[in-house]
Every structure is written in structure tokens, then in C-alpha cells.
Amino acid sequence: MTAAPSESSPSSPQLTRHVTSGGARIYTVGVNAFPHLSANVFLIVVGDAAAPSYTALLDTGGHDAGSTGGLALGLEAVREQYGEAWSWETLSRVVISHVHPDHLAGLPFVQTLTAAPTAAHALDVATIRNPEAARDAAIPGTEALLAWAGIESDYATRFRNRARNLMLPRAARIDTVLHGGESLDGHFEVIHTPGHAGGHICLRLHDILLCADHLLPHNSPPLMPERAHVGGGLAHYLASLDCVEALEGVTLALGGHGGPMPDWRGRIWQLRERYQDKLQAVLDAADQPATVQALTLTLYPNISRVQALLLLDQTGALAEYLAATGRLHEQAVAGRASLFQRVQQGKKG
Ligand SMILES: [Zn+2]
Asked: 18: which of 52, 220, 303, 343 is 20 to 30 A away, CA to CA?
């Protein structure tokens, strides 16, 4: 029942290659974004290998030397092992899928090597350009979340520490603001997929979907309540699953962690079922009025320190969704934590 990413950490950069129906090559470089979290960075090459007409980098991994060094080595290997004449000098484009540090934090490093214009979703632009201001602006929202969810003592301290000490990436340049629905550089279809993150985007090139953390092969993407994160939450996430599922002609999805997903539609079904199970578990736990923290501790009595914040966030997102869809009653009292209780099914006449 964990929402925590649990990828293995390769000791050296992993490199895989996929070719789209239109002949473009997509190279997946696995980097150690954090010491215990591998993340995928993608290099896309269009045109003749000896003289590509378009090259783009999607995501940048983490900020420390282990990640950036692995990225540089992996990208060099694309040139050496596959004869792709790409270079930092001629790179056409950099794209950030969403602002989480395992995808974004390598961007300042990348921008020291290339002048390629960088694109991100409109909701993420302020955070990328000025991470410290974005962090400070989010602190009142964290306090409101703690009050709403009844998060107390040690857990509250850890939430506050997370809000203040987020592994803040350094500020970086954004040249192109995306909204979703547009074509980027005449190559990518941009699909806005809020939920896991408000500014999360997927890119489609021919028959391959680059879906970052929207679809992952092994994990359900962590969610935060929408009230604490614009564009976050389960309602947005499920709507984004519907939106992606409706894409015609996609034969492969490549996510931000883990391996390729040929059966990406099956994965969407699994993820929906996973969230239905999680929703049912929250309903089952809410036979008496309870705060989000109390529900979380009922669901996960042996909650570990590492997982506590992710699971409190997740239970908050689930309770928020159940209240909005009329299955939990939310008793909101000004200045106090909301109490959630299962709505009894009305008797049928
Ligand atoms: Zn993420």
C-alpha cells in the first residue's frame, strides 16, 4: 500500500532506445536522481543520425554530481554507441515534465551546457524561475493543510521542515510557457495531465507517449490534496487518466521511473483500480468522525517515518475526493480540523 517510489538504483547510467513510428529515436537514460531513486531522462533525436534535424531533452534528473555526471555519461553514450551526432551546442529544446526535484533539479547544470530554449507548463514557471519565492509563498498553505487535516506534533514538525527545507533547485531559465493542447516545435503534442503535480505534462511523439510520473509501471504516483496544491489531487489525476486513455495510436508509454509500458492502457486500468481500493479503505476506516491524521493512523498503524508524510498527503487527497463526491461527510469547524465520516447509504424505497 505504499505510495513511495521504490525503484532500484543502478550503479551506472542505464541506456535504452526506442524508435517511433515516424523514425524518431527516443533514448532513455536512467540516472540516480537521489541516492535511492532512479529517474529517467529522455533524449529525442529526429532526422538523420549523422545530422539530426531536431534534438530535445525531456527532464534533467537530480542536482548532485551523481545524477548530473550520470546524465552527461549516458548522453555521451548515445553518441558513441548509437552514432547519433547530437551535441549540447546544437540541442534544439529542453522540456521539464513537472517541478519535482528528481525531474527538475538538474536543469541549472543542463543550462550551463546548452542555450537550447527550455519549456515548462505555465503553472510551474514561477517555481522554476524563483524557487525560494515559491517556497515562501507555499508556507501559509502548509499551515492551512496541517490545521485542516489535524496533523499534530512530530508529523506537523516534519511537514513544516519539508516545506522549509525542500530540496530547492537553483533558479533556472524558462523560455517557452506551455498550456497543453499545443504542438511544441512542430514535433511534440503537449498534453496537460494535472494530478500528481499541477503543472504535469506528457509529450507525445508519433506512437510513443512520454508520460513522466503520470503513469508509472510499479507505483501509483503520490498525490497531495488539491487544497494544498493547485492542480493536485485525485479528481484531477483521474480526469488526466481519462484524457490520456483517449489518445489513439499510442503503442508505448515511457515513464519518469522504471521501464517501458507497452500495455499502457492496462496500466491505466490498474491505477484506477488501485485508487478505488484506496478510496474504499478510507471509507471503511471512517465509521466514526475522524481527522485525516486519525484516518491515516487507522489505515497504517505501523507507519514509518519515511512514509508518514506521503501517506498523510495521500489520505488527505482521498478524503478530500470522497467528501467532494458525497461519500464522506466533512464536518468543517472554523479553526479546527475537519472530521470525516462515512455517509450511510440511504434506504431504497
Ligand atoms: Zn513527480
From this structure: 220
